[in-house]
Every structure is written in C-alpha cells, then in structure tokens.
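In this section we walk through a basic example: taking a raw amino acid sequence and producing a predicted 3D structure, encoded as discrete structure tokens. The instruction is simple. Fold the sequence below.
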Amino acid sequence: YPKKTVEKYFYFTMFREPMERLRSAYSFGKHLSKLKNDSISFDTYLNEKHIPNCQLKMILGFGCAEFVDPQHLNISLALERIQAPNFFFGITDRWDESICLFHSMYGGSTQQFELKNNRKTKRVQTGYINRTFAESFFFDEVVELFNVRVKKAGC
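The resulting token sequence is shown next.
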C-alpha cells in the first residue's frame, strides 16, 4: 500500500479507575503477568514492577507491560497531552456521559447501541487491597478535567 500523509488525526481513550483496571486485568488471566502462574494472588500480581500505571505509561508513549521507573512518569506531561484539541478521553465508569461528551465534541447523536455494556467484566475475588500508584494521582486529575468538559457540554 502506498504511504499516505495523515493530515488530521485524533486520539481516543477511555480511562478507568486504576485499582479497578488492575482488578479487571487480574481477573482477565493475570493480564501481562510475567510469572506465568494462574494461582498467584492479587497482591503478588500488583508487586510485579511492570504491572502498575498502564494508562499513564501509554499516554507517555511507553508500553503497558514496560517497566518504567515511577520517577519518570511525568503526570504533568500526560495531563498536557490529554488536553490537546485532538485528544478525546472518557471514563468507563461514566460511560453515558462519555458518549454524550464524544458527540458534543465530534457531532452526531447518541445511539442506543452506544450505551450498551457489551463487555461485562467477570471478576474473581481479589480482597481489599488499597495501593496508591502514580496513575492514581493522574486519574484524579483526569476526573477533574472530565467534570469540566461534561459540565461545559451539558452532558
């Protein structure tokens, strides 16, 4: 195929509360675990150094499964990137508002099929573990930005 120059492009992502994303990844076959052991505990899974901060790492251009020293996770840069005019983000736990915001920014009207949960997560019990990762601070700021956008859009 001939190479084409893309003049106009957009980024689209849906963020998820970090511990909820980790619980989901754990439930989904210990996603990206390098231990290759289905019986590891959630705590053991979280202690794999490459597991936390996936969403933040990807916004910064790293791979989700890549270990990145937390000192190199630049939250300010990540926040700057998601506020670019060509970057749309929503929040999975606020799906309907995210879809409304998307249409407010890019046009069209919300269709019923867009509001359907077609990928329900099957959870295994992980117990309560409260950890704070760099991504937790990033997500708090994401929610604040999202609230402003949703309010402005009237969603």
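Looking at the output, two observations stand out. The longest strand covers residues 11-15. The chain has a mean pLDDT of 89. In the next section we compare this with other chains.
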